[in-house]
């Protein structure tokens, strides 16, 4: 089956990234015994293997794509707009003291939701449904769990919020204009 590699990659990658949902106590025990940096290093290995399998499986599945629907032309434009939102949300995770992080608490997870949903709007193959649908479902489940965990207290600053929006917009522009084509062989514009 042409989706098998993609499915293995998704199970491995999303499984490792779901440890907090199903094994928070085990995770904390491992961090305490190994140390945070060692835990992250070990955690990274299956994550990278899963990511590589996802990429290889997605490419393999698209050699003979199975079309489920033909998205209307306007969906590409909506996807590009939603990707701006997604990129800003992803950047909000890393810039301290911004209002977006204060409001959402876990902007990366929301950014993954927006990314996956946006790509489902403009892509109609079985591989797209499996890939982006899996990430959408995962981000919905992980966000529910993440909202229940304590979050760092931040004192938002409008300068950091503006920096978040500007940096996110700049990265989105570069990605839309050049990187998406370079990395995935498809130009969104």
TrEMBL record:
State the compartments where it is located. Answer: Membrane
Q: Where are the transmembrane segments?
A: 42-63, 75-95, 115-141, 162-186
Tell me where in this chain the NnrU domain is found. Answer: 6-188
Under the cellular component aspect of Gene Ontology, which terms does the record hold?
membrane
A Pfam family cross-referenced in the UniProt record is NnrU
* Membrane topology per record: Multi-pass membrane protein
Q: Does the keyword Lipid biosynthesis apply?
A: no
Q: Does the keyword Membrane apply?
A: yes
Keywords, A to Z, come to:
Membrane, Transmembrane, Transmembrane helix
Provide the protein name. Answer: NnrU
Task: Please give the organism.
Answer: Candidatus Nitrotoga fabula
